C-alpha cells in the first residue's frame, strides 16, 4: 500500500490497524522508528487516531519527530479486556477512556450464567482480574436466590444463602428444607430488598431447598444441596494421560535436569511442560493439549534455546482433553459399604488427552486404588472406614466430568472413637510495667533461629525490633522493654510468614479484660501429627487471666497428654496416640471453647519411608492462574505420592502428579488467588519432611499486625440500634478481611470502604454477649475476637449460637501524610499528693559522689516519674533512676561544681509534695 493511501485510510476511517502497518507508516522513507515492548507485541496493541487533538508527548510515545502537515497523533493502547462466556467463547467488551486516569468497561451479555472478565494492562492482569459475574435471563421484578448454602454444606454448620425480592411486588415468600434431618431455618430481612437465610443441617445427605413466591417455585427451586458429615477427610489420586512428543535431536540423561520446556498454544497461552524419557528410549515432552492448532515448543538450557528449539507441533481437535466425553459407570458412585472395596470404571478413550484427578471426602479418609484394565479404561475403587455421605470429585483436563461431584451414601460398621481429657489451673501471669523486661515464649522444634524475626508495636503505633533468644532446643523467647502502658502487638515471623498464633496481644500494666476469647493456641501439633511420638503445640493464657484450662483429645485411640507450665502465661502441650486417623483437639478455658477450637488434626502412620523423599526446584513465588511446578525425588522409597494445595481462603484443590524419570516426580498446581498457599505432599498417607510447603502467590504484603479496630461497635451496644466500628487497614497491604460475629442472634452486618480502611455496621437483635472475630488473610488481628455486650429488648428468638459474617477483598491504603504518627500517651489515673520521697540527696549533696534518695508512689496510681537537677552552671553531670517494683524508685546523681542546686521530682505533670527541693553542695 502506498504511504499516502495508508495514511488517509487510517486518518479518514479511524480504522484499527495492526503493528506491521503502523511500523511501515513511520519507517517509510524517514529512517525513524518507535519502540514497543515484547509484552506489547504479544498483546497486539490497538492503534487508533484522534483527529483535531494535539497531545504530543515525546517521552511517553517513544517518537522522535512530528508527522508533517498533520495534527493527528497516534496512541499505542496496551489496555485489553475480554469476557469469557459460559459457553467458553470469548467476547470483546467496549473500553472507554474517562480521561482522568480511569477507564470504563461496558459489556452487553448474550448468554446466561457465570462470565469471567479478564482485564490486562501491558499484558499483565490488573489486581483482582479475572472478575466473575453472573448473568440471569430473568427480567427484574422476579425473585431470585443465590449463595453457597443452595449447593453444599457441612452437617452441624449453618448453610447460608440470600433471596432477592427487589421490585417483585407483593406476594408471600415461603421456604422449606427437606432432607435426612430436621433443619432449623432462620431468616433476616436486610431492609434492602434481600433476605438472609440460614438453615442448620444436623445429618449429612442431600437436602432439597424449596423457595416459593406467591405459591410458585422461583427459578432453580427446588435447589439440591449436598451436605457432608462433620470432620471431612480427603483422599486424592492423579492419573497421567498426557500427549507425548519426541524431541528432535539427541539429549543425554545428564541434560534432562538442566533443561526447561514450555509450550505456547495458538491463543498465546504459555505453560510449562515436562521432559521425560519415553518408552521408546527417546527424550520427549509431555503436555495436556487445551486447544487445537499449531503449538510452539521451546526447550531452553540456562535461558538459551537448545539446538532445533523452538519447534512446532500440530494438535488435532480429537486430541484436546474434553471432560464432557468421559464416561463413568458403576453403582459405587451412588452407594458404598465400609471396610470393603467399592469399584467404578472411568472410560477416557474418546475424551482426548488430559490428566485425570480423583478426590473423595467424607467422614473417613477412604483409601483409593486405581487399575488400568485396558487402554483408556480405568477401574477405580475406594475403601471408607466410617459410614456417612461422601463427595467424589472427578476431574479430567482440569474440568469436572458430567455428574461430578457425586454424592455417595456409605453404610456399614464404623470404627470406635476414644476420648482423653486433662485439666490444669492457670494462675494469673506476673504483671508487667513500663521499663521492665517483658517476655513471650513459644516452642517451634526443627527450625533455625536465624530465620526468626520479631517486632513489637506500642499502643501509640511505634514499631521496634525485639530480641529473640533460644532458651533451649526448640524453645524461644521474645524480649522487649515497653515505654508505654497498654496493649502491645508482638509479631513473630519465620521466613517472613507469621508463626501460628502471631500477631500476639501483650498488655503492659493491668489487664483490661479476661476470658476464653483471649486464649491463643498454635503449633504443628494442632495441624498434623504422627502416631507413636509426641506432637507439640503452644497455649498462651496470659491475656485471659486466671482460670481452668481443659485439654481433650478424641479419636481412634486413647491419647497420652503431657503439660508443661512455663510460669509466664504460656504452656507447652504434647500428646501421643498409637493409631493414625482423624482426631479432634478441644481446648476450653473456664468451660468455654477458645477461638477456633475444636481443632481437627490428622495423625499419620509412623513416618516409614517418607523421610527419604526430598523436594527439588521449589519456586520462590508463583502467580495467579499460571501453572507452577516442582519436583520430588523418592530416593528409593516405595509407595504412593499425593499432593493438595490449600489456598489462603481455605479452598483445597488437587495437585497433578506425574512420573518424569525413574523415581523423580513432578507436582503441578494452578493457584487461583493471591496469598500464602500451603502444599501438602504425602507419601503413603504421611507428610514428607518439608510438608506442608508454603509459597507466596502474587504480591502478598498483607500484614495482620498492622490492622487495628476502634469505634463504639466494640463496646456496649443496644439491641435494634445500628452501631459501627472502623477497621484501620492503613499500611497493612491488600488482603482478605473477614469479620464474623457469634452471639445469641444473627446480626444484619455490612461493610463499606472509608478513607482509613473499612466501616463495619451491624444491628444486634437479642441481648447477651457477642464475640466479633476480625481476621486479615486468615490471622486474627490483635484483640480479636472482641467481646461485646448487647443490652435492651429482645427483638428476635434466642436459640443456639448464631453466626453472621462479611468478607471483603481490601485494597492498599496509606495513612495521610499530615496524620500524626508516633506514640500517644495513655490516659493515666494518678494522684501526685500521695507520693512520698526521702533520702540525704534531697537535702545535701557531695562533689563527685553518688547522692541518693528514694521515691515511693505505690499508692499514687500509675504515671511516669520525672527527675531533673539544675545547678549554678546548668544541668548536673549524671542522673540515674531504677524501678524497684510496685512504683518504688531509687535515684542517685553526681555533681562536679559547688553551689546551690534545684531538684525537681514530678509524678506525671504534677510536682510531688516538697518538690522542687533546694540542695547545697
Brief write-up:
This protein has 921 residues and is mostly beta strands.
Written overview of the protein:
The protein is mainly beta. The protein folds into 8 domains: 57 residues, Immunoglobulin-like (Sandwich); 85 residues, Sandwich (Immunoglobulin-like); 73 residues, Sandwich (Immunoglobulin-like); 89 residues, Immunoglobulin-like (Sandwich), CATH 2.60.40.10; 187 residues, Immunoglobulins (Immunoglobulin-like); 88 residues, Immunoglobulins (Immunoglobulin-like, Sandwich), CATH 2.60.40.10; 107 residues, Immunoglobulin-like; 89 residues, Immunoglobulin-like (Sandwich). 4% of the residues lie in helices and 49% in strands. It is built from 5 helices and 81 strands. The strands form 17 sheets. Strands 20, 21, 22, 23, 24, 25 and 26 form a 7-stranded antiparallel beta sheet that branches. Strands 37, 38, 39, 40, 41, 42 and 43 form a 7-stranded antiparallel beta sheet that branches. Strands 19, 28, 30, 33, 34 and 35 form a 6-stranded mixed beta sheet that branches. A hairpin with a 5-residue loop joins strand 22 and strand 23.
CATH homologous superfamily grouping of the largest domain = Immunoglobulins
Largest sheet: 7 strands, antiparallel
Helix content: under 10%
- Determine the CATH topology of the largest domain: Immunoglobulin-like
Radius of gyration: 34 Å
How confident is the prediction overall: mean pLDDT? 77
Poorly predicted runs of 5 or more residues: 1-77, 818-822
SS elements, strand count: 81
- Structural classification: mainly beta
| Structural domain tally | 8
Q: Give the N-terminus to C-terminus distance in angstroms.
A: 103 Å
Overall, the morphology is globular
Strand content: over 45%
At CATH level 2, the architecture of the largest domain is Sandwich
CATH secondary-structure class of the largest domain: Mainly Beta
Treating each run of at least 4 consecutive H or I residues as one helix, how many helices? 5
GO cellular component, one term: cytoskeleton
Keywords: Actin-binding, Cytoplasm, Cytoskeleton, Repeat
Filamin repeats: 80-135, 135-227, 225-315, 318-410, 408-508, 511-603, 620-697, 699-790, 827-921
GO molecular function: actin filament binding
Amino acid at each position: 500500500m502506498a504511504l499516502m493511501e495508508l495514511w488517509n485510510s487510517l486518518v479518514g476511517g479511524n480504522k484499527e490497524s495492526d503493528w506491521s502497518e503502523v511500523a511501515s507508516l513511520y519507517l517509510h522513507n524517514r529512517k525513524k522508528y518507535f519502540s514497543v515492548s515484547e509484552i506489547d507485541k504479544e498483546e497486539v496493541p490497538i492503534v487508533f487516531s484522534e483527529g483535531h487533538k494535539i497531545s504530543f508527548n515525546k517521552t511517553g510515545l517513544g517518537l522522535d519527530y512530528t508527522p508533517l502537515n498533520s495534527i493527528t497523533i497516534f496512541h499505542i493502547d496496551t489496555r485489553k479486556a475480554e469476557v469469557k462466556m459460559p459457553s467458553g467463547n470469548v467476547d470483546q467488551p467496549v473500553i472507554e477512556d474517562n480521561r482522568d486516569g480511569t477507564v470504563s468497561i461496558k459489556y452487553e451479555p448474550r448468554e446466561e450464567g457465570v462470565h469471567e472478565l479478564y482485564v490486562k494492562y501491558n499484558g499483565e492482569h490488573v489486581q483482582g482480574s479475572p472478575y466473575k459475574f453472573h448473568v440471569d435471563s430473568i427480567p427484574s421484578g422476579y425473585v431470585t436466590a443465590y449463595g453457597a448454602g443452595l449447593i453444599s454444606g457441612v452437617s452441624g454448620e449453618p448453610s447460608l444463602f440470600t433471596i432477592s425480592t427487589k421490585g417483585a411486588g407483593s406476594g408471600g415468600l415461603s421456604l422449606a428444607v427437606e432432607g435426612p434431618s430436621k433443619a432449623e431455618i432462620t431468616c433476616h430481612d436486610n431492609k434492602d430488598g434481600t433476605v438472609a437465610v440460614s438453615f442448620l443441617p444436623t445429618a449429612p445427605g442431600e437436602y432439597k431447598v424449596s423457595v416459593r413466591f406467591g405459591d410458585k417455585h422461583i427459578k432453580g427451586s427446588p435447589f439440591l444441596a449436598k451436605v457432608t458429615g462433620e470432620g471431612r477427610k480427603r483422599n486424592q489420586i492423579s492419573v497421567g494421560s498426557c500427549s507425548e512428543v519426541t524431541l528432535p535431536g539427541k539429549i543425554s540423561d545428564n541434560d534432562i535436569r538442566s533443561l526447561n520446556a514450555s509450550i505456547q498454544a495458538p491463543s498465546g497461552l504459555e505453560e510449562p511442560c515436562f521432559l521425560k524419557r519415553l518408552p521408546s528410549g527417546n527424550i520427549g515432552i509431555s503436555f495436556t493439549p487445551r486447544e487445537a492448532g499449531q503449538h510452539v515448543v521451546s526447550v531452553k538450557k540456562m535461558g538459551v534455546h537448545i539446538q532445533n528449539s523452538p519447534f512446532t507441533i500440530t494438535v488435532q481437535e480429537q486430541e484436546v482433553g474434553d471432560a464432557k466425553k468421559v464416561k463413568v459407570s458403576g453403582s459405587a458412585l451412588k452407594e458404598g459399604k465400609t471396610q470393603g472395596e467399592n469399584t467404578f470404571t472411568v472410560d477416557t478413550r474418546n475424551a482426548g488427552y488430559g490428566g485425570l484427578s480423583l478426590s473423595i471426602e467424607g467422614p473417613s479418609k477412604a483409601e483409593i486404588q486405581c487399575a488400568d484394565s485396558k487402554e483408556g479404561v480405568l477401574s477405580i475403587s475406594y475403601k471408607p472406614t466410617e459410614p456417612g455421605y461422601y463427595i467424589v470429585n472427578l476431574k479430567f483436563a482440569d474440568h469436572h466430568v458430567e455428574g461430578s461431584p457425586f454424592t455417595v451414601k456409605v453404610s456399614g460398621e464404623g470404627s470406635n472413637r476414644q476420648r482423653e481429657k486433662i485439666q490444669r489451673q492457670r494462675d494469673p501471669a506476673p504483671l508487667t510495667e513500663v521499663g521492665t523486661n517483658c517476655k513471650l515464649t513459644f516452642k517451634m522444634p526443627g527450625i533455625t533461629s536465624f530465620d526468626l524475626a520479631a517486632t513489637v508495636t506500642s499502643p501509640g503505633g511505634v514499631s521496634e525490633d525485639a530480641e529473640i533468644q533460644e532458651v533451649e532446643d526448640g524453645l524461644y523467647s521474645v524480649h522487649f522493654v515497653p515505654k508505654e502502658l497498654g496493649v502491645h502487638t508482638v509479631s513473630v515471623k519465620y521466613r517472613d510468614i507469621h508463626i501460628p498464633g502471631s500477631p500476639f496481644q501483650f498488655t503492659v500494666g493491668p489487664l483490661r479484660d479476661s476470658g476464653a476469647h483471649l486464649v491463643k493456641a498454635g503449633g504443628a501439633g494442632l495441624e498434623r501429627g504422627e502416631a507413636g511420638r509426641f506432637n507439640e503445640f503452644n497455649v498462651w493464657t496470659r491475656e485471659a487471666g486466671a482460670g481452668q484450662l481443659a485439654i481433650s483429645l478424641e479419636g481412634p485411640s486413647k491419647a497420652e497428654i503431657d503439660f508443661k507450665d512455663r510460669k509466664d502465661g504460656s504452656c507447652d502441650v504434647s500428646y501421643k496416640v498409637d493409631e493414625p486417623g482423624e482426631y479432634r483437639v478441644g481446648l476450653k478455658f473456664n468451660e468455654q471453647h477458645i477461638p477456633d477450637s475444636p481443632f481437627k488434626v490428622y495423625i499419620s502412620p509412623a513416618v516409614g519411608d517418607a523421610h527419604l523423599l526430598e523436594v527439588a526446584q521449589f519456586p520462590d513465588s508463583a502467580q495467579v492462574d499460571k501453572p507452577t511446578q516442582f519436583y520430588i525425588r523418592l530416593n528409593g522409597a516405595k509407595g504412593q505420592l499425593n499432593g493438595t494445595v490449600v489456598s489462603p481462603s481455605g479452598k483445597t484443590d488437587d495437585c497433578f502428579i506425574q512420573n518424569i524419570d525413574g523415581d523423580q516426580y513432578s507436582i503441578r498446581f494452578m493457584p487461583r488467588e493471591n496469598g500464602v498457599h500451603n502444599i501438602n505432599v504425602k507419601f503413603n498417607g504421611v507428610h514428607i519432611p518439608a510438608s506442608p510447603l508454603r509459597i507466596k502467590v502474587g504480591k502478598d504484603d498483607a500484614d495482620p499486625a498492622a490492622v487495628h479496630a476502634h469505634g463504639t461497635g466494640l463496646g456496649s451496644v443496644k439491641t435494634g440500634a445500628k452501631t459501627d466500628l472502623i477497621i484501620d487497614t492503613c499500611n497493612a497491604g491488600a488482603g482478605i478481611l473477614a469479620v464474623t460475629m457469634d452471639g445469641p442472634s444473627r446480626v444484619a452486618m455490612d461493610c463499606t470502604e472509608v478513607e482509613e480502611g473499612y466501616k463495619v455496621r451491624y444491628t444486634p437483635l437479642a441481648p447477651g454477649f457477642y464475640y466479633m472475630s476480625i481476621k486479615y488473610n486468615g490471622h486474627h488481628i490483635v484483640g480479636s475476637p472482641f467481646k461485646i455486650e448487647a443490652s435492651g429488648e429482645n427483638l428476635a428468638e434466642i436459640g443456639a449460637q448464631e453466626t453472621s459474617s462479611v468478607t471483603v477483598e481490601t485494597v492498599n491504603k496509606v495513612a495521610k501524610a499530615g496524620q500524626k504518627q508516633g506514640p500517644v500517651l495513655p490516659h493515666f489515673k494518678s494522684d501526685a499528693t500521695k507520693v512520698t520521697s526521702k533520702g540525704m540527696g534531697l537535702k545535701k549533696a557531695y562533689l563527685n559522689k553518688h547522692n541518693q534518695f528514694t521515691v515511693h508512689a505505690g499508692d499514687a496510681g500509675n504515671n511516669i516519674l520525672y527527675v531533673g537537677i539544675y545547678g549554678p552552671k546548668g544541668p548536673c553531670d549524671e542522673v540515674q533512676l531504677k524501678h524497684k517494683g510496685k512504683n518504688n524508685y531509687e535515684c542517685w546523681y553526681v555533681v562536679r561544681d559547688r553551689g546551690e542546686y534545684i531538684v525537681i521530682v514530678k509524678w506525671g505533670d504534677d510536682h510531688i509534695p516538697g518538690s522542687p527541693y533546694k540542695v547545697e553542695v
